[in-house]
Design goal:
With 445 residues, the chain is mainly alpha-helical. The chain starts with a helix and ends with a helix. Among the domains are: 83 residues; 144 residues, no CATH class. It comes from Streptomyces agglomeratus. InterPro entries: TPR-like_helical_dom_sf. This is Transcriptional regulator.
């Protein structure tokens, strides 16, 4: 049954405009939701009878004085078929895991359900509590329905949310199983609806990119390259330029991180060609920043500066309805952070530090991993720019963040910074940081 109450609240705004308002409201209260026009459409069509806890908090914040019933939703206990929890408040990731369990159990694909339990576990929890399940797909092709496709899409969102909050290291192995299941659905299932098939291809490709990023950020570069290539192949098969641009963006990033700057330039330029078919200036901006990073890695200052100018021009054109959902992280903070990396690669440490400082100051603290990343970049730039005391102070803040973020990339950056600071180890400001870092590294934290 359509949710007409929710539709009336949207008013004259388009689904994309309303989704943008939902994301803004979430940021205002420290929540993070990957809301897009498709999600709004699913709510209005009645497919989402009750929102998860994160969306509930956002909607009630947006419409003070109204209840979930006023918004056209069903009571949570009637949707779940069990009493509402009263003793504890479930985490957002628990709620997302429950969505995945229900959808994939209903479809008969128990593999995803088991994997979802693993994703819902807090980073650092014992993996033995959630052993991987063997593949349990039907032996003959079957039709794919809304439940299967939506569960793949929800898995992508869940992985991104958990990564933003906790980093990649504790998630990668658990995220690989949903990816295998998604591609098994592609191989073993059929659907008579082109739109459903397109969504399944796009969802599987985005899931490959999300899992690839977890591999990338946790230092598993060969795995990351494989996942990115898989996503690119899926994009080509599906004829999906937005997915293709995303795959090239991640491939360019990986090439730069692994010392292949010329490949980074080529991949970024290929991504820009694909993005010409997507009406998203911000997507073009990000891909041009990837190109700038490649030129910086090649030591080509002029090429880097030209790309940065183009990237800023596209960025200043603003957001658009066609902006991909995965780009929710790409705001002014990321723009500054990527420019800082360019100047760092070119050896202009003072300029790099200025941009890294802006990135850290602009970053929404809810994106914990990105805040740790920008701060680690700032600490390294300051150390190399001849400001060891300030670098150590920023480094202490990064160590604080690493108590809740698991990112091999950030830890590697911080280790490089400590090596730069070793000549200043007798400084009363630097010594405590070096000691704490050494103790943290020995403890494996």
């Amino acid at each position: 049954m359509p949710n007409n109450d929710f539709r009336r609240l949207r008013g004259s705004r388009s689904p994309a405009e309303f989704a943008a308002a939902v994301r803004r409201a979430a940021r205002e209260i420290g929540e993070q939701v990957a809301c897009d026009a498709r999600y709004i459409g699913r709510v209005e069509a009645g497919e989402i009878r009750c929102p998860n806890y994160a969306y509930e908090r956002v909607f009630l914040y947006m419409f003070p004085g109204l209840t979930l019933a006023d918004l056209g939703f069903s009571a949570r206990e009637t949707v779940r078929g069990r009493g509402a929890r009263t003793t504890t408040t479930p985490s957002h990731s628990d709620e997302e895991s429950d969505v995945l369990r229900r959808a994939f159990m209903t479809s008969g694909t128990a593999t995803m359900a088991a994997a979802s339990l693993g994703l819902g576990t807090a980073p650092g929890a014992s993996a033995a509590a959630h052993p991987p399940a063997p593949a349990a797909l039907p032996g003959t092709p079957r039709r794919v329905g809304e439940a299967e496709v939506s569960a793949v899409e929800d898995a992508v969102r869940q992985i991104r949310l958990l990564d933003d909050r906790h980093g990649a290291d504790g998630l990668y192995k658990r995220a690989a199983q949903p990816l295998r299941t998604a591609y098994a659905l592609l191989d073993a299932s059929t659907t008579s609806r082109r739109a459903m098939a397109d969504r399944l291809h796009t969802g599987a490709g985005e899931l490959a990119l999300s899992v690839g990023w977890l591999a990338h950020d946790s230092g598993r570069f060969d795995d990351a390259r494989s996942h990115y290539a898989e996503a690119l192949a899926t994009a080509r098969v599906a004829g999906d330029p937005a997915l293709e641009a995303h795959a090239f963006s991640n491939s360019a990033f990986l090439a730069r991180d692994t010392g292949r700057p010329r490949e980074a330039v080529r991949a970024a330029q290929a991504g820009q060609r694909a993005a010409q078919h997507v009406a998203s200036p911000r997507l073009l901006s990000l891909l041009t920043l990837r190109e700038a990073g490649g030129w910086a890695g090649l030591g080509d200052r002029a090429g880097c500066e030209q790309a940065l100018v183009r990237a800023k021009f596209q960025f200043e054109r603003g957001t658009a309805d066609a902006d991909p959902e995965w780009m929710s992280f790409f705001g002014e903070a990321e723009l500054e952070g990527l420019e800082a990396q360019c100047w760092s690669a070119l050896g202009d440490w003072a300029r790099a530090a200025r941009h890294a400082r802006r990135a850290a100051a602009l970053q929404d603290p809810h994106f914990t991993r990105n805040l740790a990343l920008y701060s680690a970049e700032l600490a390294d730039d300051l150390a190399r720019a001849g400001a060891p005391d300030e670098a150590a102070a920023v480094g202490q803040g990064v160590l604080d963040l690493l108590e809740e973020v698991q990112s091999a990339r950030v830890r590697t950056m911080l280790s490089e910074t400590t090596r730069v600071l070793l000549p200043h180890r007798r400084s009363p400001s630097v010594a405590p940081f070096l000691t704490r870092h050494a103790n943290t590294s020995r403890s494996g934290a």
